[in-house]
């Protein structure tokens, strides 16, 4: 989480925070400037909490302590590249609405890029390359991303599998072996079906890669490798919809990296695919 801003850290962990931690988080997000200029005792007193509670909150976000946390707030406050996303309102014109939706999409991808851990990506690439087969899983909106991933990786030298039906996905998971890899996509990381699939994967000792927006989710805790995507929620467009664009970018990054790592086999696969597809065109 070293590349995450304070806002992004709070957002990614918020759902899994305790009630007191959420109280602090809400206060910080609503009073960035004030918090960055106050002492830990002043803030704790205003919230009716012990100093140690706020200190532990800053540690949970990945900072060494309150001083480190304040420095990050000050940096964020004066960084011109960091701005609070403008929410869409009923008074916005059609042009403004369109611009804000595009801005939210761009920001989701930019935020995801900022938090890239290259070692984690390398681990995911190695797991996929060294597996006998990679099977993509996704439920609901994540199913579309899983399908796109499958469609993309069919062009790679890696044998891949995918099914749209949730029951067939569970059946696929039950047939994985220790030499296979499951790639599960879930924005929340709490889907009952996704967790059932992940548990079957672990029972079969197959490798598990998870792509989610919540690094502390139950699904992420089961994974061998966790890839994080960011999202921006706007009116009538939930986080899960926005997260698809950043998820697709993560998949694209893995795909291109894998294709370049084994150029000869990748080119052979592409030639076969293109030849087969060319026969469908006039």
TrEMBL record:
SUPFAM superfamilies: Homeodomain-like (SSF46689), SIS domain (SSF53697). One of its GO terms (biological process) is carbohydrate derivative metabolic process. Residues 4-80 form the HTH rpiR-type domain. It holds the Pfam family SIS. The keyword Transcription applies. It comes from the Bacteria. Residues 124-264 form the SIS domain. Keywords: DNA-binding, Transcription, Transcription regulation. One of its GO terms (molecular function) is DNA-binding transcription factor activity. PANTHER family: GLUCOKINASE, HTH-TYPE TRANSCRIPTIONAL REGULATOR HEXR-RELATED. This is Transcriptional regulator, RpiR family. It comes from Anaerorhabdus furcosa.
